[in-house]
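Marked as duplicate of an earlier ticket. Keeping the data here for the record.
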Amino acid sequence: MKIKLMLLVVLVSMSTNSFSKDFSRLTHEEFFKLNKKQLIEASGQGYASAQLILGYYYGQVWKPANLNKALELFVKSANQGNQTAAFWAANYYWQGKGSAPNYQTACVYAAMNEGVQGNDAIPERLMATCYSNGWGVQHDLTKAEKLIVGLIKSGVDVHHMLAGVYKQQGKYLEAIAEYKQSSDYERGIWNETIIKLKSLADKKAREEQIEIARVEREKRVALKQAEDKKREEEKKKNNLKEDKLRKEALSYKQEFHYVISIKVDKECPQYSEKVYNFMYNQVESIRAASIGSMLNTSSVIERFEHIVAGYKKYKKSLTDRGCL
């Protein structure tokens, strides 16, 4: 008896499998030729195309519609990478079909469909919502703004959506202007929002003025620091030049005192008095220049240049006369 029962189970199993269809070799288009029973079977075996088609029939064709079942099948198919199913899942979540409206989840499936063109493309209004909130896709206010502006140009009243984008961008006055263009503006539903935006705009304007003043102040400070640095560098440069000229002048003073004056006394005594007068005048000039240096006058370098030039010229004159 037990053996007969086992044989019966095997025969029933073999009989059932013999009527099962092999779906593994079907193309996406061939799934459309399956009947309801076969679609349910293929869907149960996890074929994404069958899940998409069966979901479409449940939600869009068969009456009464079973939106919950349709959404369930769209989600299963989309989770396997079917972009058309992602389109339907996104729209169902967005419109609240088969589920309470869930824009965030709608955007997750909209992202799976991103880039698709034609009838299976996600509505621009939904994609704009996704981009402006960063749901399912990277937060991108530029893309959101572009989509919304396109909708407005085509006659769709989504000024409030553009206002929301401008608000996130900190363009409060532009946001107020868009709210005022919305068809809902006359009903006063944006009044409180506009009041808040005006407050934010005033605050931003004050902050911008403070920032402008801060930047200008920093510019003035930086300019003064640059000028001070330039003056300091110029001062160091002048000090080095002055020091060099001073040493050169003192060197000539020593040379005239210990060498040239002695040679003139010996070779050209007729010029001795003039040489001593010149030496005296040059010493006085060096003393005056040194006092000017202590007083930090601007003509010190010129004075030393004049002294050194005088020594050179007088030495050359004496040389030309054969006194040296």
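See parent ticket for discussion. The first helix runs from residue 2 to 19.
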